[in-house]
Amino acid sequence: MVSNCNKFYFVASGVTCSKVLSDANISLADFAKWNPNVGAECTGMWAEVNVCVGVIGGTTPTTPPTTTSKPVTTTTTTPGNGIQTPQPTQPGMVTNCNKFHWIAQGVTCSQVLSYNGISLADFAKWNTGVGADCSGMWAEVNVCVGVIGGAATPPTTTTKPPVSTTAPGNGVTTPQPTQPGMVTNCKKFHYVSEGNTCDQIISYNGITLANFVKWNTGVGATCQSMWAKTYVCVGV
């Protein structure tokens, strides 16, 4: 994935390349350019990862979209900050969200609140589908854990600083949750699905093990401690 990406699309299992192009209203040429590892014919696209479907400056003017020019329906841009909402999302998410958290299987509501230093009241307000007691929170979706202007209700947990960081120069916020020990200046991320190996991630992103370990110290020198269902850094 290119380093100047500012719009992302989560490729769920079973989603085809043509659906991604249609949903994001982009051409295959641009998609392959922004995600070199998918290949010119999109045969290398993986499931359960985020791909780039937009960059700072927009699409290449000389490459018209191959699909009809319908509006983008799968993602919405948060007003004023240019951050694209990652997919899929918890139903009822507010439109002015600018900080997101991926809910892996087994994650509890209290863990999300504590990890992000927010209150249940704000979390339920930003994600109305979860309900006042958070009983409706889904797994395997992105939820909103921050909005433009900040929280309205002080968190009930300790007032630790937010865990996510903004990548310098492009305003792209680090997706959550992350592999422990990730560097703070990361600007390219990879979601580690169940069953992914370190070798697959290194090969897919065209990086070395040495750099991968340097950017994600928690994985260990031989990558033996890499966590599944977290984001790792694959570019700075």
UniProtKB/TrEMBL annotation:
Residues 62-89, 155-175 are annotated as: Disordered. Keywords: Chitin-binding, Signal, Virulence. Residues 155-168 have a biased composition (Low complexity). Gene3D superfamilies: LysM domain. SUPFAM superfamilies: LysM domain. GO terms for molecular function: chitin binding. Residues 7-53, 99-145, 188-234 form the LysM domain. InterPro entries: LysM, LysM1-like, LysM_dom_sf. PANTHER family: AM15 (PTHR34997), LYSM DOMAIN-CONTAINING PROTEIN-RELATED (PTHR34997:SF2). Belongs to the secreted LysM effector family. This is LysM domain-containing protein. It comes from Glomerella acutata. The lineage of its organism: Eukaryota, Fungi, Dikarya, Ascomycota, Pezizomycotina.
